[in-house]
Design a protein that fits this description.
Layout (H helix, E strand, L loop, with lengths): L3 E8 L3 H13 L5 E3 L2 E4 L3 H9 L3 E8 L22
Antiparallel strand pairs: 1-3, 1-4, 2-3
């Protein structure tokens, strides 16, 4: 478990609002900890304002921050192979 730190918490009213928030934050490559009803991220007033304009309630709290690892940071099960070229 990560050590507690200050995080921004954006609370969504429904799944659609949460999906929109994740879409916009993901486009900005923001590390996110995603829950069923909201997201945690490192405090950033610009992002917090954007989420507020999307209708999410944003607050700060001290909590462990464990963002999603990201698709390209995962070990791959692909096996390399070579083709001889003549």
């Amino acid at each position: 478990v990560a050590a507690p730190e200050e995080v921004a918490v954006a609370q969504a009213a429904d799944a659609h609002q949460l999906a929109r928030a994740c879409y916009h934050l993901g486009n900005r490559h923001v590390p996110l900890q995603i829950a069923a009803d909201g997201v945690r991220f490192q405090p950033d007033h610009v992002l917090e304002q954007m989420l507020g304009e999307l209708g999410l309630a944003v607050r700060h709290e001290t909590a462990p921050f464990q963002p999603e690892p990201g698709a390209y940071g995962q070990p791959s099960h692909a096996h390399g192979h070579e083709h001889p070229h003549e």
